[in-house]
Specification:
Blueprint lengths: L8 H9 L9 H5 L12 E9 L4 E9 L7 E7 L13 H11 L2 E6 L10 H15 L1 H4 L1 E11 L1 H15 L7 E5 L10 H5 L11 H12 L25 E8 L3 H13 L4 E10 L10 H20 L4
Parallel strand pairs: 3-4, 3-5, 5-6, 7-8
Antiparallel strand pairs: 1-2, 2-4
């Protein structure tokens, strides 16, 4: 069945207007692509800082309300997507501002190193360093240490899931909540959806062919060894002790089945988890510059999940 008959009509125009992504092309050229510009929010203050990472200085962006209502706010540690090979925090400015305004929180976004120049474990170690820095700076950032959530989409969702595992296994920092959205979890690409959503069916969305190449670039030499769950969290055997979780995914996403398996195993491990499957939706349909009703609905679900999580852990 062709994708035109399966995609929600309100989203079909996005697919038809999107350029085809060819990861065999010049990576730097692809990285230079700029998403649609959004007006900045006058209600949000953005600060850029440099912190010490495991091998180099790392850039972080801090988003906070111009007018704070309480001395200490909850925080969302945000990890951008891009298949582990693309993206910067700047591409998620609009989304991070949206979280600040809707959740009334601080957002810290990390500019981790990208593959193939910096294969695994560069990205996850950078993310861990940024999370640790955030937890260590709660007084300066005026953050409630009991209400730090981690979140990200696509590869950022995979890094979120991996970071939850790493923080658990290393004894901290303490994470109150995780929100790995349509996460890139499993390098094996053996699920039905990973075959179903391919270049022939969805040529302008993230698909099997893109995914295979991105994983190859990210894992590098590690692909020849037993792949660590810190690289591919779908391989983790023990999901117990992870923070309460919220996630969603479109039914036409190659990550659909690995996400559903992850959700089921979280529940089996006793982790509170909420999950939404959106029919007729492809990878990244919720992008902040998409104004379709279903995109707004998905973003509102994230906001409500964060609000509820912070309400339950509020010790103020």
């Amino acid at each position: 069945m062709s994708y035109e008959k399966r995609v929600l009509p309100e989203l079909l125009g996005i697919l038809k207007q999107a350029p085809k992504l060819d990861l065999n092309d010049d990576i730097e050229k692809i990285r230079s692509f700029k998403p649609p510009a959004l007006d900045t929010s006058p209600e949000v203050k953005i600060t850029t800082r440099s912190i010490q990472g495991p091998e180099s200085e790392l850039r972080i962006k801090i988003y906070e309300p111009v007018n704070r209502e309480t001395p200490k706010l909850p925080a969302v540690y945000w990890i951008h997507g891009g298949g582990y090979i693309l993206g910067t925090p700047d591409g998620d400015d609009g989304l991070c501002e949206f979280f600040v305004n809707e959740v009334h929180c601080v957002v810290v976004s990390i500019d981790y190193r990208l593959a193939p120049e910096h294969p695994y474990p560069a990205a996850i170690e950078d993310c861990y360093a940024g999370l640790k820095w955030t937890a260590d700076q709660v007084e300066e950032l005026q953050i409630d240490s009991s209400r730090i959530a981690i979140a990200g989409a696509s590869a950022g969702g995979g890094l979120t899931a991996a970071l939850s595992l790493m923080a658990r296994d290393r004894g901290g920092p303490q994470i109150a909540f995780q929100m790995p959205l349509y996460p890139m979890l499993d390098d094996r690409n053996e699920t039905p959806s990973s075959y179903e959503i391919n270049e022939q069916n969805l040529p302008t969305a993230w698909n099997r062919e893109n995914n295979l190449l991105a994983w190859k670039m990210y894992l590098g030499a590690a692909a020849a060894d037993a792949v660590s769950p810190y690289a591919a969290p779908g391989r983790a055997e023990d999901l117990s002790g992870l923070p309460p979780t919220y996630t969603f995914i479109g039914q036409l996403d190659p990550f659909r089945d690995e996400t559903m398996d992850y959700v089921a195993r979280l529940a089996q491990a006793g982790v509170p988890v909420e999950f939404h499957l959106y029919p007729g939706c492809f990878h990244g349909f919720d992008a902040i510059f998409n104004e379709q009703d279903i995109s707004k609905q998905a973003r509102s679900g994230c906001v409500n999940a964060l609000k509820n999580a912070f309400k339950q852990t509020n010790k103020e």
